[in-house]
Amino acid sequence: MYDVIIIGAGPGGLAAGLYAARARMKTLILEKEKAGGQIVTTDEVANYPGSVENASGPSLIARMVEQADEFGAERKLDTIKEVELNGEIKVLKGEKGEYKAKSIIIATGARPRPIGCPGEKELTGRGVSYCATCDAAFFEDMEVYVVGGGDSAVEEAMYLTKFARKVTIVHRRDELRAAKSIQEKAFKNEKIDFLWNSTITELKGDGILESMVVKNTVTGEETEIHANEDDGTFGVFVFVGYTPETKLFEGLITMEGGYIKTDDDMKTNIPGVFAAGDCRVKSLRQVVTATADGAIAAVQAEKYINEAFDV
Fold it and tell me: What is the DSSP pairing of strand 98-106 with strand 273-275?
């Protein structure tokens, strides 16, 4: 029996684990793959307060894991398939076992959203990627396309210029949505080009990405772009937003657009169940806000236990 079980080991979950364990609560952090969430795919974390120069996502997460471990939080790898949240004792049923707790913190995060065009799924890992840090090196001195116009798309495009000979940002509008400071850097970068008012409608290739069909959102005209003959392929990196990992809680917890609704104390509509990080309704999804969510959720979970169980 745990005091608190945290589902997800991204920045929000790890911060919750750190605060819960420090409060001497019996704490378990469950993660289905590996600790870190989306931030482990980020090459540079320059906007996290106090992060050292050239800090990377993996290095930041490694320290968070170390801190949670130091204070006694348990960590296990398992995929939760079913939850029972309404009773006084919450029950989580995973592939490897069943877990019980007095409170639950949901920190399941979000996953990259695909373009949704024909050929994308078949060519993922064969030219199509959602992680520049993971796959940039495969496109050394080749051409790559970045889909999206927000902060992450433009930042990843700049990172890709370290490897690719040319990077083209494909955006459905005629101007970027990224912060002005990020835009300025991109416009100054000689390796970055722009394909405005454009969407990718199909990705083609026999086992490897060889061409893509691009549609002009203004004229409706479609153009097929082929890989350079010498290269044989090119890269398409997709950064068009995220989908919250909340399907497990549909019909149980109040949501909005797939994101979990909470109050300022991270409380959901179910007593003893809290949410933190990218999976909840919020105006800014960044490492700094996820860790703040996690800290608040853990403190509130302790208060809930003290009151509900007369500790």
Answer: parallel
